[in-house]
């Protein structure tokens, strides 16, 4: 990222001082955090879909927990929360 700022500064004649570099760092960190949060939400949605699919197909809580690598209480909570939504 610092290389790109150097190119902007020298190649395009745009002044890139310490404040701009700091602001760009902040923005990059913010976008990284947003991306990571989005990935986590996507993973959670896939897990819910997976658990609910197994539940609808008649797998036991123990089987779902084993395959999903969750404890039975976590699986039970997902099913209870989303069974109403899915119905």
Quick structural gist:
This protein has one domain. Helices cover 84% and strands 0% of the residues. The chain has helices at 2-12, 18-56, 61-68, 72-86.
Would you spell out the secondary-structure blueprint of this structure?
Blueprint: H1 2-12, H2 18-56, H3 61-68, H4 72-86
Protein described:
By secondary structure, the protein is mainly α. It has helices at residues 2-12, 18-56, 61-68, 72-86. Helix 2 packs antiparallel against helix 3 and helix 2 (18-56) packs across helix 4 (72-86).
Which features would summarize this protein structure in a list?
rod-shaped, 0% strand, 84% helix, 4 helices, 87 residues, mainly alpha
Helix content class: over 70%
Summarize the main sheet: none
Mean pLDDT: 82
Number of domains: 1
User: Rounded to an integer, what's the Rg over CA atoms?
Assistant: 23 Å
What is the approximate shape?
rod-shaped
Task: Report low-confidence residues grouped into runs of 5 or more.
Answer: none
Q: Output the structural class.
A: mainly alpha
Total beta strand runs = 0
Number of helices in the DSSP assignment: 4
Intertermini distance: 49 Å
Strand content: under 5%
């Amino acid at each position: 990222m610092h290389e790109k700022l150097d190119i902007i500064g020298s190649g395009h004649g745009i002044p890139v001082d310490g404040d701009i570099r700091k602001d760009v760092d902040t923005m990059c960190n913010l976008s990284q955090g947003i991306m990571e949060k989005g990935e986590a939400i996507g993973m959670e949605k896939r897990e819910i879909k997976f658990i609910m699919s197994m539940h609808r197909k008649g797998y036991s809580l123990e089987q779902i927990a084993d395959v999903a690598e969750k404890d039975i209480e976590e699986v039970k909570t997902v099913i209870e929360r989303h069974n109403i939504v899915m119905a």
